Amino acid sequence: MRTPPGDGRGPGAAIIGPVSEPAPDAPDLDPNDAKIEELFWTPLRLTLDLDPTQWTNLTRVVGLHVVLDRLLTLTILNRLGAGETARGLVATTPGAVAGMKFERRLKVVEEAEWVAADVVEDVREVNRVRNRLLHFDPRRKLFEEVPEIQTAATFREFTRRGHLAFMGLAGPLMPLLERAAEEP
Q1: 2 near 12, Cβ under 8 Å?
Q2: What is the pLDDT averaged over residues 67-95?
Q3: Is the pLDDT at 19 greater than 60, yes or no?
Q4: Is the pLDDT at 122 greater than 70, yes or no?
Q5: Can you give the pLDDT at residue 33?
Q6: Which of 50, 81, 117, 161 could pair with 122 in a Cys bridge, judged by C-beta atoms 3.0 to 4.6 Å apart?
Q7: How many CB atoms neighbour CB 25 within 10 A?
Q8: Counting Cβ atoms within 10 Å, is residue 95 exposed (0-12), middle (13-18) or buried (19+)?
Q9: What is the CA radius of gyration of the chain?
Q10: Are 100 and 93 in contact (CB under 8 A)?
Q11: 14 pairs with which residues across the strands?
């Protein structure tokens, strides 16, 4: 939602706050319904001053990060489970690894050299972009300082690196995942 001209906030400044008055008896709407899109999702997107393509790119960055987060955890668990010293820790290891911050898990696979250095850098770049998008800093201008979602060209480059990160983490796990899928 853009501020009206001459309100003292400057042209195009975003308004942070409620996007509409809450309905006293809001109906139970399907999240994919056109009405909820009109009344909730579109005003929410406009509050962030994002066009529909940037909104889609934002959601794709978050989705990619969710997948990489899981692959990073599985990489560590797979490597630890394969080692002799980890056998006694198997029962407690998944919770401990899952409880580690993303950057710490990335550092573990980097220092252990379980993932190639270029893959680590691609994963780190996805994490950097995701953090810039999701962690508000009032000193920044909303999403203008995250060029990765602004244009088709910058998002294409981000997608290329995200794909390399995904393949670098998922590739070594594929035989394990395929075997698990075959088991009843």
Answers
A1: yes
A2: 75
A3: no
A4: yes
A5: 80
A6: 161
A7: 4
A8: exposed
A9: 21
A10: no
A11: 2
